[in-house]
Inverse folding.
Protein backbone atom coordinates (compact mmCIF):
# COMPACT_ATOMS: atom_id res chain seq x y z
CA UNK A 1 0.00 0.00 0.00
CA UNK A 2 1.28 3.50 -0.80
CA UNK A 3 1.15 5.94 2.11
CA UNK A 4 -1.86 8.18 2.54
CA UNK A 5 0.33 11.30 2.20
CA UNK A 6 -0.97 13.75 -0.40
CA UNK A 7 -4.23 11.79 -0.89
CA UNK A 8 -7.61 13.47 -1.15
CA UNK A 9 -9.49 12.40 2.00
CA UNK A 10 -13.14 12.72 2.96
CA UNK A 11 -13.77 12.85 6.72
CA UNK A 12 -17.37 12.51 7.95
CA UNK A 13 -17.72 14.00 11.40
CA UNK A 14 -14.68 16.06 10.42
CA UNK A 15 -15.56 18.85 12.87
CA UNK A 16 -16.05 16.48 15.81
CA UNK A 17 -13.61 15.48 18.55
CA UNK A 18 -11.75 12.66 16.80
CA UNK A 19 -12.60 13.76 13.26
CA UNK A 20 -11.19 17.28 13.57
CA UNK A 21 -7.97 16.02 15.15
CA UNK A 22 -7.69 13.57 12.26
CA UNK A 23 -8.24 16.42 9.80
CA UNK A 24 -5.29 18.31 11.30
CA UNK A 25 -3.06 15.25 11.08
CA UNK A 26 -4.05 14.59 7.46
CA UNK A 27 -3.31 18.20 6.55
CA UNK A 28 0.12 17.73 8.16
CA UNK A 29 0.61 14.79 5.77
CA UNK A 30 -0.01 17.10 2.80
CA UNK A 31 -3.43 15.59 2.12
CA UNK A 32 -6.35 17.48 0.66
CA UNK A 33 -9.17 17.12 3.16
CA UNK A 34 -12.93 17.48 2.80
CA UNK A 35 -14.61 17.57 6.21
CA UNK A 36 -18.32 16.74 6.14
CA UNK A 37 -20.25 17.49 9.33
CA UNK A 38 -23.80 18.42 10.37
CA UNK A 39 -22.57 20.16 13.55
CA UNK A 40 -25.06 18.26 15.69
CA UNK A 41 -22.25 17.34 18.10
CA UNK A 42 -19.34 19.23 16.57
CA UNK A 43 -18.00 22.76 16.73
CA UNK A 44 -16.78 25.25 14.11
CA UNK A 45 -13.97 26.08 16.59
CA UNK A 46 -12.54 22.56 16.09
CA UNK A 47 -11.81 23.27 12.42
CA UNK A 48 -10.84 26.92 12.89
CA UNK A 49 -7.14 26.25 12.33
CA UNK A 50 -7.79 23.85 9.42
CA UNK A 51 -9.81 26.56 7.71
CA UNK A 52 -6.61 28.55 7.24
CA UNK A 53 -5.25 25.76 5.03
CA UNK A 54 -6.00 25.95 1.31
CA UNK A 55 -6.09 22.14 1.10
CA UNK A 56 -9.08 22.08 3.47
CA UNK A 57 -12.76 22.18 2.51
CA UNK A 58 -15.61 22.20 5.00
CA UNK A 59 -19.07 20.98 3.98
CA UNK A 60 -21.95 21.60 6.37
CA UNK A 61 -23.95 18.50 5.55
CA UNK A 62 -25.74 15.52 7.04
CA UNK A 63 -24.92 11.93 6.08
CA UNK A 64 -28.67 11.42 5.70
CA UNK A 65 -28.56 13.93 2.81
CA UNK A 66 -27.51 11.39 0.20
CA UNK A 67 -27.25 13.86 -2.67
CA UNK A 68 -24.95 16.35 -0.94
CA UNK A 69 -22.94 13.47 0.48
CA UNK A 70 -22.29 11.99 -2.96
CA UNK A 71 -21.40 15.26 -4.66
CA UNK A 72 -19.11 16.34 -1.78
CA UNK A 73 -17.12 13.10 -2.01
CA UNK A 74 -16.13 13.56 -5.66
CA UNK A 75 -12.46 12.97 -6.36
CA UNK A 76 -11.59 11.46 -2.98
CA UNK A 77 -9.50 8.29 -2.67
CA UNK A 78 -10.02 7.69 1.05
CA UNK A 79 -13.11 8.03 3.24
CA UNK A 80 -12.79 8.21 7.01
CA UNK A 81 -16.34 7.65 8.24
CA UNK A 82 -16.27 9.08 11.75
CA UNK A 83 -19.69 10.78 11.89
CA UNK A 84 -22.00 9.10 14.39
CA UNK A 85 -24.56 9.55 17.05
CA UNK A 86 -22.30 8.80 20.01
CA UNK A 87 -24.81 9.27 22.80
CA UNK A 88 -24.57 5.75 24.22
CA UNK A 89 -26.19 6.41 27.55
CA UNK A 90 -29.44 7.94 26.32
CA UNK A 91 -29.96 5.64 23.32
CA UNK A 92 -33.05 4.04 24.83
CA UNK A 93 -34.87 7.38 24.93
CA UNK A 94 -34.78 7.71 21.12
CA UNK A 95 -34.01 4.30 19.59
CA UNK A 96 -34.35 5.55 16.00
CA UNK A 97 -31.29 7.82 16.27
CA UNK A 98 -28.63 5.12 16.28
CA UNK A 99 -30.39 3.34 13.43
CA UNK A 100 -30.65 6.52 11.36
CA UNK A 101 -27.29 8.13 11.96
CA UNK A 102 -25.08 5.11 12.47
CA UNK A 103 -26.56 2.25 10.44
CA UNK A 104 -28.40 4.04 7.61
CA UNK A 105 -25.75 6.79 7.67
CA UNK A 106 -23.01 4.21 7.05
CA UNK A 107 -25.06 2.70 4.22
CA UNK A 108 -25.34 6.17 2.67
CA UNK A 109 -21.58 6.71 2.93
CA UNK A 110 -20.94 3.35 1.24
CA UNK A 111 -23.39 4.14 -1.55
CA UNK A 112 -21.74 7.54 -2.09
CA UNK A 113 -18.38 5.74 -2.29
CA UNK A 114 -19.77 3.33 -4.86
CA UNK A 115 -21.19 6.22 -6.90
CA UNK A 116 -17.82 7.99 -6.80
CA UNK A 117 -15.61 4.92 -7.19
CA UNK A 118 -13.89 5.51 -3.84
CA UNK A 119 -12.08 2.25 -2.99
CA UNK A 120 -11.11 2.67 0.69
CA UNK A 121 -12.92 3.34 3.95
CA UNK A 122 -11.72 3.77 7.52
CA UNK A 123 -14.50 3.35 10.08
CA UNK A 124 -14.82 4.36 13.70
CA UNK A 125 -16.45 1.40 15.39
CA UNK A 126 -16.42 0.75 19.11
CA UNK A 127 -15.19 -1.75 21.67
CA UNK A 128 -18.81 -1.79 22.84
CA UNK A 129 -19.57 -4.27 20.05
CA UNK A 130 -18.08 -6.94 22.33
CA UNK A 131 -20.99 -6.44 24.75
CA UNK A 132 -19.98 -7.92 28.11
CA UNK A 133 -17.20 -10.18 26.84
CA UNK A 134 -16.07 -13.42 28.46
CA UNK A 135 -12.47 -12.79 27.41
CA UNK A 136 -10.67 -9.76 28.91
CA UNK A 137 -8.56 -8.12 27.53
CA UNK A 138 -10.83 -8.70 24.55
CA UNK A 139 -9.21 -9.57 21.20
CA UNK A 140 -10.70 -8.76 17.78
CA UNK A 141 -11.64 -12.42 17.25
CA UNK A 142 -13.41 -12.80 20.62
CA UNK A 143 -16.40 -15.17 20.71
CA UNK A 144 -19.39 -13.89 18.71
CA UNK A 145 -20.84 -11.29 21.11
CA UNK A 146 -24.32 -10.33 22.28
CA UNK A 147 -25.13 -6.64 21.95
CA UNK A 148 -26.12 -4.68 25.05
CA UNK A 149 -26.75 -1.19 23.64
CA UNK A 150 -28.44 0.34 20.62
CA UNK A 151 -25.25 2.32 19.96
CA UNK A 152 -23.07 -0.78 19.73
CA UNK A 153 -25.75 -2.63 17.73
CA UNK A 154 -25.78 0.21 15.20
CA UNK A 155 -21.97 0.22 14.95
CA UNK A 156 -21.95 -3.56 14.51
CA UNK A 157 -24.49 -3.11 11.70
CA UNK A 158 -22.14 -0.54 10.15
CA UNK A 159 -19.21 -2.97 10.37
CA UNK A 160 -21.27 -5.69 8.68
CA UNK A 161 -22.34 -3.37 5.86
CA UNK A 162 -18.74 -2.30 5.24
CA UNK A 163 -17.53 -5.91 5.21
CA UNK A 164 -20.26 -6.91 2.73
CA UNK A 165 -19.39 -3.95 0.48
CA UNK A 166 -15.72 -4.93 0.56
CA UNK A 167 -16.62 -8.48 -0.47
CA UNK A 168 -19.26 -7.49 -3.00
CA UNK A 169 -17.83 -4.39 -4.63
CA UNK A 170 -14.10 -4.89 -4.26
CA UNK A 171 -13.45 -2.11 -1.74
CA UNK A 172 -10.94 -2.19 1.12
CA UNK A 173 -11.60 -1.20 4.71
CA UNK A 174 -9.99 -0.69 8.07
CA UNK A 175 -12.38 -0.87 11.01
CA UNK A 176 -11.25 0.60 14.32
CA UNK A 177 -12.89 -0.57 17.54
CA UNK A 178 -12.22 2.30 19.92
CA UNK A 179 -12.02 2.33 23.64
CA UNK A 180 -12.97 5.75 25.10
CA UNK A 181 -10.71 8.41 23.62
CA UNK A 182 -9.49 11.38 25.67
CA UNK A 183 -7.59 14.59 24.91
CA UNK A 184 -7.90 17.98 23.25
CA UNK A 185 -11.41 18.75 21.89
CA UNK A 186 -12.94 16.00 24.02
CA UNK A 187 -16.54 17.09 24.41
CA UNK A 188 -18.67 14.30 25.83
CA UNK A 189 -18.24 11.40 28.24
CA UNK A 190 -17.39 10.85 31.86
CA UNK A 191 -14.60 13.47 32.17
CA UNK A 192 -16.99 16.03 30.69
CA UNK A 193 -19.79 15.01 33.07
CA UNK A 194 -17.54 14.96 36.16
CA UNK A 195 -15.97 18.31 35.24
CA UNK A 196 -19.39 19.90 34.87
CA UNK A 197 -20.65 18.42 38.13
CA UNK A 198 -17.58 19.68 39.99
CA UNK A 199 -18.00 23.13 38.47
CA UNK A 200 -21.52 23.21 39.90
CA UNK A 201 -20.52 21.74 43.29
CA UNK A 202 -16.76 21.42 44.03
CA UNK A 203 -17.39 19.64 47.34
CA UNK A 204 -19.27 16.61 46.08
CA UNK A 205 -19.13 14.30 43.06
CA UNK A 206 -21.99 11.92 42.37
CA UNK A 207 -20.89 8.86 40.38
CA UNK A 208 -23.18 6.58 38.34
CA UNK A 209 -22.68 2.94 39.35
CA UNK A 210 -20.43 1.95 42.25
CA UNK A 211 -17.21 3.59 41.02
CA UNK A 212 -15.59 0.16 40.66
CA UNK A 213 -16.27 -0.11 36.92
CA UNK A 214 -12.95 -0.73 35.19
CA UNK A 215 -12.38 1.31 32.02
CA UNK A 216 -9.52 1.84 29.63
CA UNK A 217 -8.78 5.11 27.83
CA UNK A 218 -6.57 6.18 24.97
CA UNK A 219 -5.10 9.59 24.27
CA UNK A 220 -6.25 11.17 20.99
CA UNK A 221 -2.79 11.52 19.40
CA UNK A 222 -1.94 7.89 20.25
CA UNK A 223 -5.26 6.96 18.65
CA UNK A 224 -4.44 8.92 15.49
CA UNK A 225 -0.92 7.46 15.33
CA UNK A 226 -2.56 4.04 15.23
CA UNK A 227 -5.13 5.00 12.60
CA UNK A 228 -2.57 6.52 10.24
CA UNK A 229 -0.21 3.57 10.75
CA UNK A 230 -2.98 1.06 10.01
CA UNK A 231 -3.99 2.96 6.87
CA UNK A 232 -0.45 2.61 5.52
CA UNK A 233 0.46 -0.85 6.81
CA UNK A 234 -2.69 -2.99 6.91
CA UNK A 235 -2.65 -5.47 4.04
CA UNK A 236 -5.93 -7.26 4.74
CA UNK A 237 -8.99 -6.64 2.57
CA UNK A 238 -10.83 -5.86 5.82
CA UNK A 239 -8.53 -4.93 8.69
CA UNK A 240 -10.10 -4.84 12.15
CA UNK A 241 -8.12 -3.25 14.97
CA UNK A 242 -8.87 -2.60 18.59
CA UNK A 243 -7.55 0.80 19.67
CA UNK A 244 -7.04 0.92 23.39
CA UNK A 245 -4.45 0.97 26.15
CA UNK A 246 -2.69 -1.82 27.99
CA UNK A 247 -3.73 -0.24 31.29
CA UNK A 248 -7.13 0.44 32.75
CA UNK A 249 -8.41 2.38 35.74
CA UNK A 250 -11.51 2.30 37.91
CA UNK A 251 -14.04 5.11 37.63
CA UNK A 252 -13.01 6.06 41.19
CA UNK A 253 -9.36 6.43 40.11
CA UNK A 254 -10.34 8.48 37.11
CA UNK A 255 -12.57 10.73 39.23
CA UNK A 256 -9.63 11.17 41.63
CA UNK A 257 -7.32 12.31 38.80
CA UNK A 258 -9.94 14.78 37.57
CA UNK A 259 -10.44 16.23 41.05
CA UNK A 260 -6.67 16.47 41.73
CA UNK A 261 -6.02 18.18 38.40
CA UNK A 262 -8.69 20.72 39.33
CA UNK A 263 -7.16 21.11 42.82
CA UNK A 264 -10.33 19.79 44.47
CA UNK A 265 -11.05 17.15 47.13
CA UNK A 266 -14.73 16.37 46.70
CA UNK A 267 -16.63 13.69 48.58
CA UNK A 268 -17.65 10.89 46.24
CA UNK A 269 -21.24 9.62 46.41
CA UNK A 270 -22.58 6.72 44.39
CA UNK A 271 -25.73 5.91 42.47
CA UNK A 272 -24.92 2.25 43.17
CA UNK A 273 -25.05 -0.86 41.02
CA UNK A 274 -22.36 -2.54 38.99
CA UNK A 275 -23.26 -0.57 35.84
CA UNK A 276 -23.54 3.20 35.36
CA UNK A 277 -26.53 2.77 33.03
CA UNK A 278 -28.27 0.08 30.98
CA UNK A 279 -25.74 -1.15 28.46
CA UNK A 280 -22.76 0.08 30.50
CA UNK A 281 -20.05 -2.54 30.82
CA UNK A 282 -18.48 -3.06 34.28
CA UNK A 283 -15.14 -4.01 32.71
CA UNK A 284 -13.96 -2.64 29.37
CA UNK A 285 -10.47 -3.60 28.31
CA UNK A 286 -9.48 -4.29 24.72
CA UNK A 287 -6.51 -6.41 23.71
CA UNK A 288 -4.26 -4.30 21.43
CA UNK A 289 -1.70 -6.91 20.32
CA UNK A 290 -2.92 -6.83 16.72
CA UNK A 291 -2.28 -3.10 16.40
CA UNK A 292 1.01 -3.45 18.30
CA UNK A 293 2.11 -6.05 15.76
CA UNK A 294 2.02 -3.27 13.13
CA UNK A 295 4.57 -1.37 15.24
CA UNK A 296 2.32 0.90 17.28
CA UNK A 297 2.45 1.61 21.00
CA UNK A 298 0.50 4.17 23.07
CA UNK A 299 2.87 6.79 24.48
CA UNK A 300 0.63 8.65 26.92
CA UNK A 301 -0.48 7.04 30.20
CA UNK A 302 -4.17 6.97 31.13
CA UNK A 303 -3.44 9.27 34.07
CA UNK A 304 -1.80 11.84 31.77
CA UNK A 305 -4.59 11.48 29.21
CA UNK A 306 -7.23 12.27 31.85
CA UNK A 307 -5.20 15.23 33.17
CA UNK A 308 -4.59 16.60 29.64
CA UNK A 309 -8.32 16.38 28.99
CA UNK A 310 -9.18 18.27 32.16
CA UNK A 311 -6.63 20.97 31.34
CA UNK A 312 -8.01 21.34 27.82
CA UNK A 313 -11.49 21.75 29.26
CA UNK A 314 -10.25 24.39 31.68
CA UNK A 315 -9.10 26.42 28.70
CA UNK A 316 -12.22 25.78 26.66
CA UNK A 317 -15.19 26.16 28.93
CA UNK A 318 -17.19 27.57 26.01
CA UNK A 319 -17.84 23.93 25.09
CA UNK A 320 -20.11 23.63 28.13
CA UNK A 321 -22.24 26.57 27.07
CA UNK A 322 -22.91 24.97 23.73
CA UNK A 323 -23.74 21.54 25.14
CA UNK A 324 -27.01 20.58 26.73
CA UNK B 1 -41.57 -20.54 30.84
CA UNK B 2 -45.16 -21.65 30.19
CA UNK B 3 -45.69 -23.36 26.85
CA UNK B 4 -46.72 -21.34 23.85
CA UNK B 5 -49.96 -23.34 23.50
CA UNK B 6 -53.06 -21.14 23.30
CA UNK B 7 -50.99 -17.93 23.03
CA UNK B 8 -51.82 -15.16 20.59
CA UNK B 9 -48.94 -15.14 18.09
CA UNK B 10 -47.96 -12.65 15.41
CA UNK B 11 -46.03 -14.14 12.48
CA UNK B 12 -44.37 -11.76 10.02
CA UNK B 13 -43.79 -13.48 6.70
CA UNK B 14 -46.64 -15.73 7.79
CA UNK B 15 -47.57 -16.65 4.20
CA UNK B 16 -44.00 -17.54 3.24
CA UNK B 17 -42.29 -20.93 3.17
CA UNK B 18 -41.20 -21.23 6.79
CA UNK B 19 -43.73 -18.73 8.18
CA UNK B 20 -46.81 -20.48 6.79
CA UNK B 21 -45.62 -23.86 8.02
CA UNK B 22 -45.11 -22.29 11.45
CA UNK B 23 -48.62 -20.83 11.30
CA UNK B 24 -50.07 -24.32 10.77
CA UNK B 25 -48.09 -25.73 13.68
CA UNK B 26 -49.14 -22.87 15.98
CA UNK B 27 -52.79 -23.42 15.04
CA UNK B 28 -52.31 -27.10 15.93
CA UNK B 29 -51.15 -25.89 19.38
CA UNK B 30 -54.46 -24.03 19.84
CA UNK B 31 -52.81 -20.64 19.36
CA UNK B 32 -54.52 -17.65 17.86
CA UNK B 33 -52.37 -16.57 14.94
CA UNK B 34 -52.08 -13.28 13.08
CA UNK B 35 -50.06 -13.72 9.88
CA UNK B 36 -48.63 -10.49 8.48
CA UNK B 37 -47.24 -10.66 4.95
CA UNK B 38 -46.76 -8.36 1.95
CA UNK B 39 -46.85 -11.29 -0.51
CA UNK B 40 -43.67 -10.14 -2.21
CA UNK B 41 -42.25 -13.67 -1.92
CA UNK B 42 -45.23 -15.50 -0.41
CA UNK B 43 -48.38 -17.11 -1.72
CA UNK B 44 -52.05 -17.02 -0.67
CA UNK B 45 -52.07 -20.78 -1.36
CA UNK B 46 -49.69 -21.32 1.58
CA UNK B 47 -52.29 -20.04 4.05
CA UNK B 48 -55.31 -21.50 2.27
CA UNK B 49 -55.80 -24.23 4.89
CA UNK B 50 -55.13 -21.85 7.81
CA UNK B 51 -57.84 -19.56 6.49
CA UNK B 52 -60.41 -22.21 7.37
CA UNK B 53 -59.49 -21.85 11.04
CA UNK B 54 -61.38 -19.26 13.08
CA UNK B 55 -58.27 -18.63 15.21
CA UNK B 56 -56.40 -17.39 12.13
CA UNK B 57 -56.20 -13.80 10.86
CA UNK B 58 -54.35 -12.76 7.71
CA UNK B 59 -53.12 -9.18 7.30
CA UNK B 60 -51.83 -8.12 3.89
CA UNK B 61 -49.21 -5.65 5.09
CA UNK B 62 -45.60 -4.62 4.78
CA UNK B 63 -43.25 -4.37 7.77
CA UNK B 64 -42.23 -0.97 6.41
CA UNK B 65 -45.83 0.19 7.06
CA UNK B 66 -45.24 1.00 10.72
CA UNK B 67 -48.80 2.02 11.48
CA UNK B 68 -50.50 -1.10 10.12
CA UNK B 69 -47.78 -3.21 11.73
CA UNK B 70 -48.42 -1.74 15.18
CA UNK B 71 -52.21 -1.95 15.03
CA UNK B 72 -52.13 -5.53 13.66
CA UNK B 73 -49.94 -6.69 16.55
CA UNK B 74 -52.39 -5.63 19.28
CA UNK B 75 -53.03 -8.25 21.93
CA UNK B 76 -50.23 -10.62 20.88
CA UNK B 77 -47.86 -12.17 23.43
CA UNK B 78 -45.36 -13.66 20.97
CA UNK B 79 -43.90 -12.29 17.75
CA UNK B 80 -42.20 -14.59 15.27
CA UNK B 81 -40.38 -12.22 12.95
CA UNK B 82 -39.82 -14.33 9.83
CA UNK B 83 -40.43 -11.73 7.08
CA UNK B 84 -37.28 -10.94 5.12
CA UNK B 85 -35.78 -10.29 1.78
CA UNK B 86 -34.13 -13.67 1.33
CA UNK B 87 -32.57 -13.11 -2.08
CA UNK B 88 -28.97 -13.68 -1.01
CA UNK B 89 -27.49 -14.16 -4.45
CA UNK B 90 -28.73 -10.96 -6.08
CA UNK B 91 -28.21 -8.67 -3.08
CA UNK B 92 -25.47 -6.70 -4.81
CA UNK B 93 -27.83 -5.61 -7.59
CA UNK B 94 -30.04 -3.69 -5.15
CA UNK B 95 -28.13 -3.13 -1.90
CA UNK B 96 -30.91 -1.07 -0.31
CA UNK B 97 -33.31 -4.02 -0.17
CA UNK B 98 -31.61 -5.95 2.62
CA UNK B 99 -31.19 -2.76 4.63
CA UNK B 100 -34.84 -1.79 4.18
CA UNK B 101 -36.59 -5.10 4.61
CA UNK B 102 -34.27 -6.87 7.01
CA UNK B 103 -32.60 -4.22 9.17
CA UNK B 104 -35.14 -1.38 9.20
CA UNK B 105 -37.96 -3.95 9.01
CA UNK B 106 -36.70 -5.61 12.19
CA UNK B 107 -36.42 -2.21 13.89
CA UNK B 108 -40.06 -1.54 12.93
CA UNK B 109 -41.16 -4.88 14.36
CA UNK B 110 -39.34 -4.14 17.64
CA UNK B 111 -40.90 -0.68 17.86
CA UNK B 112 -44.36 -2.17 17.23
CA UNK B 113 -43.66 -4.65 20.04
CA UNK B 114 -42.67 -1.84 22.37
CA UNK B 115 -45.81 0.11 21.47
CA UNK B 116 -47.96 -2.96 22.17
CA UNK B 117 -46.04 -4.26 25.19
CA UNK B 118 -45.20 -7.57 23.48
CA UNK B 119 -42.43 -9.14 25.57
CA UNK B 120 -41.13 -11.97 23.34
CA UNK B 121 -39.66 -12.30 19.87
CA UNK B 122 -38.46 -15.26 17.84
CA UNK B 123 -36.23 -14.25 14.92
CA UNK B 124 -35.18 -16.05 11.75
CA UNK B 125 -31.50 -15.25 11.37
CA UNK B 126 -29.08 -17.19 9.23
CA UNK B 127 -25.95 -19.31 9.46
CA UNK B 128 -24.56 -16.90 6.86
CA UNK B 129 -23.75 -14.47 9.69
CA UNK B 130 -20.68 -16.66 10.33
CA UNK B 131 -19.24 -15.57 6.96
CA UNK B 132 -16.53 -18.05 5.99
CA UNK B 133 -15.86 -19.43 9.48
CA UNK B 134 -12.57 -20.88 10.67
CA UNK B 135 -14.38 -23.39 12.88
CA UNK B 136 -16.54 -26.04 11.16
CA UNK B 137 -19.03 -27.26 12.26
CA UNK B 138 -19.59 -23.69 13.44
CA UNK B 139 -20.89 -23.16 17.01
CA UNK B 140 -22.99 -20.18 18.13
CA UNK B 141 -20.00 -18.68 19.97
CA UNK B 142 -17.61 -18.97 16.99
CA UNK B 143 -14.96 -16.24 16.68
CA UNK B 144 -16.40 -12.81 15.83
CA UNK B 145 -17.08 -13.19 12.09
CA UNK B 146 -16.55 -10.99 9.03
CA UNK B 147 -19.64 -10.57 6.86
CA UNK B 148 -19.50 -11.62 3.22
CA UNK B 149 -23.00 -10.74 1.97
CA UNK B 150 -25.45 -7.90 2.35
CA UNK B 151 -28.09 -10.43 3.34
CA UNK B 152 -26.08 -11.78 6.27
CA UNK B 153 -24.98 -8.25 7.25
CA UNK B 154 -28.64 -7.19 7.42
CA UNK B 155 -29.56 -10.25 9.51
CA UNK B 156 -26.64 -9.59 11.86
CA UNK B 157 -27.90 -6.03 12.22
CA UNK B 158 -31.32 -7.45 13.09
CA UNK B 159 -29.80 -9.74 15.72
CA UNK B 160 -27.95 -6.80 17.27
CA UNK B 161 -31.09 -4.67 17.41
CA UNK B 162 -33.05 -7.47 19.06
CA UNK B 163 -30.30 -8.04 21.63
CA UNK B 164 -30.15 -4.32 22.46
CA UNK B 165 -33.94 -4.19 22.83
CA UNK B 166 -33.85 -7.19 25.17
CA UNK B 167 -31.21 -5.47 27.31
CA UNK B 168 -32.76 -2.03 27.15
CA UNK B 169 -36.49 -2.69 27.31
CA UNK B 170 -36.66 -5.97 29.22
CA UNK B 171 -37.85 -8.17 26.37
CA UNK B 172 -36.86 -11.79 25.75
CA UNK B 173 -35.74 -13.27 22.45
CA UNK B 174 -34.81 -16.49 20.73
CA UNK B 175 -32.67 -16.04 17.62
CA UNK B 176 -32.46 -18.93 15.17
CA UNK B 177 -29.51 -19.15 12.80
CA UNK B 178 -30.85 -21.30 10.00
CA UNK B 179 -29.04 -23.48 7.57
CA UNK B 180 -30.96 -23.86 4.25
CA UNK B 181 -34.41 -25.25 4.99
CA UNK B 182 -36.13 -27.70 2.63
CA UNK B 183 -39.59 -29.26 2.39
CA UNK B 184 -43.19 -28.50 1.55
CA UNK B 185 -43.80 -24.93 0.29
CA UNK B 186 -40.10 -24.46 -0.47
CA UNK B 187 -40.06 -21.78 -3.14
CA UNK B 188 -36.55 -20.44 -3.67
CA UNK B 189 -33.01 -21.75 -3.52
CA UNK B 190 -30.90 -24.34 -5.26
CA UNK B 191 -33.51 -27.14 -5.47
CA UNK B 192 -35.90 -24.64 -7.02
CA UNK B 193 -33.27 -23.46 -9.51
CA UNK B 194 -32.15 -26.97 -10.45
CA UNK B 195 -35.75 -28.18 -10.81
CA UNK B 196 -36.54 -25.31 -13.14
CA UNK B 197 -33.39 -25.81 -15.21
CA UNK B 198 -34.15 -29.52 -15.58
CA UNK B 199 -37.74 -28.76 -16.60
CA UNK B 200 -36.32 -26.58 -19.40
CA UNK B 201 -33.60 -29.06 -20.40
CA UNK B 202 -33.75 -32.56 -18.83
CA UNK B 203 -30.46 -33.62 -20.42
CA UNK B 204 -28.16 -31.02 -18.91
CA UNK B 205 -27.77 -29.27 -15.57
CA UNK B 206 -25.51 -26.22 -15.26
CA UNK B 207 -24.18 -25.74 -11.73
CA UNK B 208 -22.83 -22.46 -10.29
CA UNK B 209 -19.37 -23.00 -8.77
CA UNK B 210 -17.55 -26.34 -9.09
CA UNK B 211 -20.22 -28.57 -7.50
CA UNK B 212 -17.88 -29.35 -4.59
CA UNK B 213 -19.39 -26.73 -2.26
CA UNK B 214 -20.45 -28.52 0.92
CA UNK B 215 -23.86 -27.53 2.27
CA UNK B 216 -26.12 -28.71 5.03
CA UNK B 217 -29.90 -28.74 4.88
CA UNK B 218 -32.72 -29.18 7.37
CA UNK B 219 -36.25 -30.43 6.76
CA UNK B 220 -38.98 -27.88 7.55
CA UNK B 221 -40.80 -29.97 10.18
CA UNK B 222 -37.51 -30.72 11.98
CA UNK B 223 -36.85 -26.97 11.89
CA UNK B 224 -40.27 -26.20 13.38
CA UNK B 225 -39.86 -28.91 16.05
CA UNK B 226 -36.70 -27.07 17.13
CA UNK B 227 -38.30 -23.64 17.08
CA UNK B 228 -41.29 -24.70 19.16
CA UNK B 229 -39.06 -26.59 21.59
CA UNK B 230 -36.76 -23.60 22.03
CA UNK B 231 -39.73 -21.30 22.63
CA UNK B 232 -40.85 -23.49 25.51
CA UNK B 233 -37.50 -24.54 26.96
CA UNK B 234 -34.99 -21.72 26.43
CA UNK B 235 -34.38 -19.94 29.74
CA UNK B 236 -31.85 -17.35 28.54
CA UNK B 237 -32.83 -13.72 28.13
CA UNK B 238 -31.45 -14.00 24.59
CA UNK B 239 -31.25 -17.56 23.31
CA UNK B 240 -29.25 -18.11 20.14
CA UNK B 241 -29.56 -21.47 18.40
CA UNK B 242 -28.13 -22.85 15.20
CA UNK B 243 -30.70 -24.92 13.33
CA UNK B 244 -29.03 -27.36 11.01
CA UNK B 245 -28.24 -31.01 10.43
CA UNK B 246 -25.31 -33.15 11.57
CA UNK B 247 -24.77 -34.22 7.96
CA UNK B 248 -23.88 -32.23 4.90
CA UNK B 249 -23.73 -32.98 1.17
CA UNK B 250 -21.92 -31.52 -1.82
CA UNK B 251 -23.89 -29.57 -4.41
CA UNK B 252 -23.10 -32.46 -6.81
CA UNK B 253 -24.71 -34.97 -4.43
CA UNK B 254 -27.73 -32.77 -3.98
CA UNK B 255 -28.08 -32.31 -7.75
CA UNK B 256 -27.88 -36.09 -8.13
CA UNK B 257 -30.71 -36.65 -5.64
CA UNK B 258 -32.86 -34.08 -7.46
CA UNK B 259 -32.22 -35.69 -10.84
CA UNK B 260 -32.85 -39.23 -9.52
CA UNK B 261 -36.10 -38.18 -7.84
CA UNK B 262 -37.22 -36.75 -11.19
CA UNK B 263 -36.11 -39.93 -12.99
CA UNK B 264 -33.50 -38.01 -15.00
CA UNK B 265 -29.79 -38.54 -15.76
CA UNK B 266 -28.58 -35.12 -16.91
CA UNK B 267 -24.99 -34.25 -17.71
CA UNK B 268 -23.62 -31.79 -15.14
CA UNK B 269 -21.71 -28.76 -16.39
CA UNK B 270 -20.02 -26.22 -14.15
CA UNK B 271 -19.64 -22.47 -14.02
CA UNK B 272 -16.40 -23.12 -12.13
CA UNK B 273 -14.84 -21.49 -9.08
CA UNK B 274 -15.02 -22.46 -5.45
CA UNK B 275 -18.07 -20.26 -4.83
CA UNK B 276 -21.42 -20.21 -6.65
CA UNK B 277 -21.61 -16.41 -6.38
CA UNK B 278 -20.04 -13.54 -4.43
CA UNK B 279 -20.81 -14.18 -0.79
CA UNK B 280 -21.43 -17.90 -1.32
CA UNK B 281 -19.63 -20.03 1.25
CA UNK B 282 -17.80 -23.14 -0.02
CA UNK B 283 -18.48 -25.01 3.24
CA UNK B 284 -21.56 -24.34 5.36
CA UNK B 285 -22.03 -26.60 8.36
CA UNK B 286 -23.49 -25.42 11.65
CA UNK B 287 -22.84 -27.13 14.98
CA UNK B 288 -26.22 -28.03 16.52
CA UNK B 289 -25.15 -29.27 19.96
CA UNK B 290 -26.77 -26.34 21.76
CA UNK B 291 -30.18 -27.14 20.29
CA UNK B 292 -29.62 -30.87 20.86
CA UNK B 293 -28.96 -30.13 24.53
CA UNK B 294 -32.59 -28.96 24.77
CA UNK B 295 -33.66 -32.44 23.63
CA UNK B 296 -34.06 -31.91 19.88
CA UNK B 297 -32.80 -34.09 17.06
CA UNK B 298 -33.48 -33.87 13.30
CA UNK B 299 -35.47 -36.90 12.15
CA UNK B 300 -35.32 -36.53 8.37
CA UNK B 301 -32.08 -37.17 6.45
CA UNK B 302 -30.78 -34.58 3.99
CA UNK B 303 -31.39 -37.02 1.14
CA UNK B 304 -35.03 -37.45 2.17
CA UNK B 305 -35.43 -33.70 2.67
CA UNK B 306 -34.22 -33.00 -0.88
CA UNK B 307 -36.46 -35.73 -2.32
CA UNK B 308 -39.51 -34.52 -0.36
CA UNK B 309 -38.87 -31.01 -1.69
CA UNK B 310 -38.68 -32.22 -5.28
CA UNK B 311 -41.89 -34.23 -4.87
CA UNK B 312 -43.69 -31.22 -3.40
CA UNK B 313 -42.56 -29.12 -6.35
CA UNK B 314 -43.83 -31.77 -8.78
CA UNK B 315 -47.28 -31.39 -7.29
CA UNK B 316 -47.10 -27.58 -7.12
CA UNK B 317 -45.64 -26.35 -10.37
CA UNK B 318 -47.88 -23.28 -10.15
CA UNK B 319 -45.16 -21.85 -7.90
CA UNK B 320 -42.89 -21.53 -10.94
CA UNK B 321 -45.44 -19.53 -12.89
CA UNK B 322 -45.67 -16.98 -10.10
CA UNK B 323 -41.90 -16.63 -9.63
CA UNK B 324 -39.61 -14.63 -11.85
Amino acid sequence: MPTINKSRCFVTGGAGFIGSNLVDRLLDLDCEVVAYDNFSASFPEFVASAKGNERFTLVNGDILDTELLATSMAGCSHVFHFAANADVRHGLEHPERDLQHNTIGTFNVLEAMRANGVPWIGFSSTGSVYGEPEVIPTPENAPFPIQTSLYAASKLAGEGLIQAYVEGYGMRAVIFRFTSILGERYSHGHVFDFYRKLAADPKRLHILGDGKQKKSYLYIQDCLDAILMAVDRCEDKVGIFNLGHEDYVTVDTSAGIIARTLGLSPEFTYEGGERGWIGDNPFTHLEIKKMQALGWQPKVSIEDAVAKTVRWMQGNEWVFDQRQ
Notes: Chain B has a mean pLDDT of 95.
